[in-house]
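FIELD: query
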Amino acid sequence: MSLAPRAVLVHRTTEYEELLARHGTHGQAEFFLSSRGRSLAEVAERHHRHRRALTDVAAAVPLRWRRSQVERTDLDRFLFGPEDVVVVAGQDGLVANAAKYLTGQPVVGIDTDPGRNPGVLVRHRARDTAALCRAATAPDGRTESLTMVEAVADDTQRLLALNEICLAPPGHGTARYRIGTPGAPPAGEPQASSGVLVGTGTGATGWLRSLWLERGSTLRLPAPSDPRLLWFVREAWPSPATGTSLTAGALGRREILELTVESDRMVVFGDGMESDALELTWGQSVRLGVSETALRLVV
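FIELD: result
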C-alpha cells in the first residue's frame, strides 16, 4: 500500500519570539524597546497574525494526509521524503531556505503577513492551502520549475541554492583565489576580493539585482525559470599579483565557473544561510553552474 502524502509545514521563529527568548518575558521586552523609543505592540501583532495563519494552514491539510512541522533552523537536520508536499508559511526567503534541502518535492508558498512580503515565492493565502495541497498531488497540477544554482567542491561536497551562492572569506576579510570561466586561460585569473556571487533568475529579485544595478551591468537578468545564471566578483582589487578582468558574466546550462582557493579559508553558502556552508582551504577548487535539480513551486 502506498503511503498517503505528508504535508511538511515549514515556518520560522517570529521577531516577537526572538525578543522573548532574549529578554525572558513580554514585560521585559516591552521595557527594553520602550526605553529606546520603540513599541512592542506592532511586533506582537505581527506574531499573532503569523500564528493564526499557521493554525489555519495546518487545519486545511487534508485529513487523510500525514503531517509534520520543521522550523527554519532545523532544516539541515530534517529528512524530507519523496512523497512530501512542502508547505512554506512565512516570507519569500523561507522558500529559498527550504529549497536547498529538496529533491523535486512540490512546494506551496503561503504568505502569512500580506503587504509586508513581495510575494515572489509565497504567492498564496492561508485560505488557499487545501486547494493547493490537492493541486500539488494531482497529475495535472500546475507547478513552475525554478532554476537553482549548484556548487560542487573537489572533495565532492555539494551545495544547492535557489537565489544565490556566495563564496567569501569568513568575517570581512579578503579572499585570494583563481577564477576561470569558459574561454578563459586554463589556469584562470588570480584575484583578491571580498567574494563572488553567483545567482539565478529568482535571485534577480534580490541580492543579485542589487549588484547588477550597482555595477550598471548590461548583462540581461534571467527569469526565474531560465536555465541561466549571472555572476559578479565583489570589489576585486588590482595589484601586480591580482587582476580584475574577470568580474562578471553569464553561465548557461553546462557552463561552469571554477574557483581555486589561494588563501587560508573560504566559505561557500547559499541564500544567506552561513550556518550551513561548505568550507574550503588552500588549494581546493569548487565548480558552480546551473543545477539539474529545480524547485517545483505550486502555482
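FIELD: remark
Residues 41-60 form the longest helix (20 residues).
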